[in-house]
Amino acid sequence: MEITKDLTIPKLFLKQVNTFGKDKVAMREKEYGIWRPITWNDYYENVKYLALGLISLGLEKGDKVAMIGTNRPEGLWAEMAALCAGGVGVWLFQDSLNEEVKYIIEHSDTKFIFGEGQEEVDKALAIYDQCPSLKKIIWDDPKGMRNYKQDFLLSMDKLKELGREYEKKDPNIFDERIKSGHGDDVVLLFYTSGTTSLPKGALLSHNNMLTMGKHLMTVDPCYESDDYVSFLPFAWIGEQMMSISCGLQVGFTINFPEGQDTILENIREIGPHVMFSAPRMYEQMTRSVQVKYLDATWIKRKMYEFSQYVGYKVANMKFDKEPVPFLWRFFQFIAYYTVQKKLKDHLGLSNIRSAYTGGAAMGPDHFRFFHAMGVNLKQIYGQTEVAGISVVHRNGDIKFDTVGLPIPDTEIKISEEGEILTRSPSVFLGYHKNPEATAKALRDGWLYSGDKGFIDDDGHLVVFDRSKDVFTLKDGKPFSPQYLETRLKFSPYIQDSWVIGDKRDYITAVICIDYSVVGKWADENKLNYTSYQELSQKPEVLALVRKQIETANKDLPDVAKIRKFANLYKTFEADDDELTRTNKLRRPFVEERYSDIIKALYSDSDLVNIDTTIKYEDGREQHIKTDLHIMTVGKE
Q1: Average pLDDT over residues 50-56
Q2: Radius of gyration for the alpha carbons in the chain, expressed in angstroms and rounded
Q3: 556: buried, middle or exposed (CB in 10 Å: 19+, 13-18, 0-12)?
Q4: Neighbours of 560 (CB within 10 A)
Q5: CA separation for the pair 349, 357 (Å, rounded)
Q6: Which of 331, 446, 576, 582 would staple 421 via disulfide (CB 3.0–4.6 Å)?
Q7: Please, which residues bridge with residue 92 across strands?
Q8: DSSP readout, 221-262?
Q9: Cα–Cα distance between 215 and 480 in angstroms, integer?
Q10: Tens digit of pLDDT for each residue in 229-282?
Q11: What are the two backbone dihedrals, phi and then psi, of residue 543, each rounded to the nearest 5 degrees?
Q12: What are 137's strand-pairing partners?
């Protein structure tokens, strides 16, 4: 598809509606156990009258329209309606706290906000009086909304009614708004994850989004017959990349899970052809397989071990671009039909043509695991400021320590300081209300990413880490903590890890155990416990985690090995400001919050006293008073 400067997302939307109409399913949603199909005509009808409703309420070109809620058709309708009316889309994470909602709504000058239901409406109500630009709060799920009578509240059904009435007054306005758009117009105001400071609002144009999607589809074509499962938050640029930038151009069917707790089950039911997720989903899949292996009978464990041995052997040959001998192809055939086929089907990956991971580093152990199973998993590299992606692995040229090659029409170079620079049609327009940050990020036509990396002999980009996160080891060499953290998370017993050691005598780690997996292990070993806190400090659990760390330490130089660790009394949580909404660790924040633990890890102490209060999203507080054990690795 040719992407001209005049093309916009709404214009492309109209073109696809005319192409597919009532015969092709645009999206499906699972409700009450049944997949509900929605055709392109249905999609169009909802978008048109929501857009006309917004126009009737005074939405003008360039006005901001925010959306908050889970992945559902109504969320995509609201976004597309805002764009067709000439507005700019602003997405918020569904689990954002009131302060986060207030900051984005106020900073973006949002005029209308779509909330899924009562929970999201309550968040909007809490900040309504503090955001003078906000005029209307619109909801679509009536559950719990019976007694909400404020005149600035409006249901989506009522908004569509207003749209139908407005169409009688001005029947051409919908088409006129769409025709008046230009590819250089701002289409999305997307807020970055904000690992070290307040989120910045990246301004993205129609052309930014469409060129990025076109170039990814040039590398890995998708087809209108494909199925895609939308489960990543729409507030993450990666989901916009797949559902809008790529999905709209190709016309594949977008499937929405019934709920967050049914994602893996719904992926199995749909069997998508393409998949994109942050590493955490793939880590969860890996952990589920490892747990099943631990619970399996002796014969099943041996069959799995054989298939893994063969799978890893064949995968390594392919990584090294070596021919696979007939004998190993025969073993691979046996492994596939005895174990791998069922395993892929269990995970919902039987039809996968390309699976992508991005947003954070994925360790080589996870990469090898999926390729050993025959899943074409690829690392991508990108950021909000390039509309999603600039670099991706190619089929037959996958190196698990790189992120691949630039997509077409994209240039990558490394500055003298080792920073990754990008130039492409998808580079954003700048930061909203932040000219200083814009001037720092955009220089001489290049985007300065803030990531350190280098280009290897094969032209592949190697992303080292965020510049601010790179360690200097005791011997003066740079080191990426993410590399070791991802190795640790390959263990089914470890949910999260935080590696410490910049300019220190040795490396240490704070570990968050996986409560369900470790709890099951504890039950099998007849260990009594009453809480996460108690389980994490059991001597047997500490010994179990030490073994996982010793495994992760293998093949690392002594100076980069973890020497001490502590099991945290809780998991890292976004609601506690320890993680971003995209599950990235806020290192400066946790360093300050857990300074006592760091101090103990670098002293002769074997205990650290914890006396703190945990705050939950619903306002509840829990006082915690406990001792954390400081454990040594490699020697007693």
Answers
A1: 98
A2: 25
A3: middle
A4: 22
A5: 14
A6: 446
A7: 68
A8: ---TT-EEE--S-TTSHHHHIIIIIIHHHHTPEEEE-S-GGG
A9: 30
A10: 999 999 999 999 999 999 999 999 999 999 888 999 999 999 999 999 988 889
A11: -65, -40
A12: 113, 153
pLDDT > 90 fraction of the chain, expressed in percent and rounded = 72
Q: How many C-beta atoms surround the C-beta of residue 435 within 10 A?
A: 9
**Residues 135, 53: one domain?**
yes
- Tokens encoding 99: 């302060």
Q: Report how far residue 473's alpha carbon sits from residue 454's, in angstroms, rounded to the nearest whole number.
A: 19
Q: How many domains does the chain have?
A: 3
Task: Return the number of other C-beta atoms located less than 10 Å from residue 634's C-beta.
Answer: 13
- Asked if pLDDT for residue 399 goes beyond 90, the answer is no
For residue 313 the two structure tokens come to 């052997």
- Residue 141: C-alpha distances to residues 36, 75, 77 (Å): 16, 11, 14
Tokens of 82: 């805002």
| Nearest one of 583, 580, 578, 550 to 564, comparing CA atoms | 550
pLDDT digits (tens, 9 = 90+) for 126-159: 999 999 999 999 999 999 998 999 999 999 999 9
Domain that holds residue 296: 276-350+352-468
Are residues 318 and 233 both part of a single domain? no
Q: Which residue has the tokens 């994925």?
A: 362
CATH assignment of the domain containing 344: 3.40.50.12780
Q: State how far the Cα of 267 lies from the Cα of 355, in Å rounded to an integer.
A: 13
Q: Could you tell me which of 313, 315, 300, 418 has the C-alpha nearest to residue 374? A: 315
Residue 636 confidence (pLDDT) above 50: no
**Does residue 283 share a domain with residue 250?**
no
Q: Are 189 and 90 a contacting pair, CB within 8 Å?
A: yes
Strand pairing category for 377-381 and 391-392: antiparallel
Could you tell me if 132 and 108 are in contact, meaning their C-beta atoms sit under 8 angstroms apart?
no
Global model pTM greater than 0.90: no
CB 356 within 8 A of CB 276: yes
Which H or E run includes 317? helix 298-319
pLDDT at residue 451 is higher than 70: yes
The Cα 108–Cα 394 span in angstroms is 38
DSSP 122-161: HHHHHHHTT-TT--EEEE---TT-TT---TTEEEHHHHHH
Angle at which helix 515-524 crosses helix 279-295, to 10 degrees, equals 10
Q: 220: how many CB neighbours lie within 10 A of its CB?
A: 18
